[in-house]
Amino acid sequence: MSDISLLSSRYQRLSELTQQINRSILTLKKQRALAMNAMNITAQLYPAVVVTLEEVTEAKALLSRFLEGVEQLLRSSETASLLEQDYSHRLKERVVTDDQVLEVRQSLMSASPLNERQLNLLDLLLYLLDDERTNLFHQLRTSRRG
User: Fold this and answer.
1) DSSP assigned state of 44
2) How many other C-beta atoms can be found within 10 angstroms of the C-beta atom of residue 106?
């Protein structure tokens, strides 16, 4: 496989993963908003938000698998690819610990919605992953010029 084909394939997979994770995080944010509605805290702000149990279950399963991979990256001293090395380095720069990731992963197994701190961590992980996707896109674009 040529360098361009390899970069293109990686970009496509990373782009799809980023979209799936983003949709999953949005689903959990909707779940949290609805839980707040049930407590009459923000009932007027979110009257049209709807999320099904199936959507929440799928979102939690996908995020749990993703977080398991993030935990492995944080614990491992060796990574398989430059992309993983860069993502791992960025996680450590942002002081993301495997304990934080484990806490969110364990909360995903419960029926209650994630708290704001946990959702913020997921947002950060998504931001860093999307940044990796952007870097890969620039590499792909640059390699096509050469």
Assistant:
1) T
2) 11
pLDDT in tens, 82-116: 777 777 888 888 888 889 999 999 999 998 889 99
Q: Which domain holds residue 139?
A: 3-145
Give Cα 143 to chain centroid, integer Å. 27
DSSP letter assigned to residue 80: S
Q: Tell me the pTM.
A: 0.84
Based on the structure, what is the number of domains in the chain? 1
Cα dihedral value 57, 58, 60, 64, nearest 10: 140
Q: Which two tokens stand for residue 106?
A: 């364990």
Q: Write the CA distances from 107 to 9, 46, 50, 64, integer angstroms.
A: 33, 24, 21, 10
Ramachandran angles phi, psi of 76, nearest 5°: -85, 140
Instruction: Looking at mean pLDDT, say which of 16-30, 31-45, 48-62, 76-90 comes out highest.
Output: 16-30
Q: Structure tokens of 73?
A: 């990256």
- Which residues fall within 8 angstroms of residue 16, CB to CB, at 6 or more apart? none
CA 113 to chain centre: 16
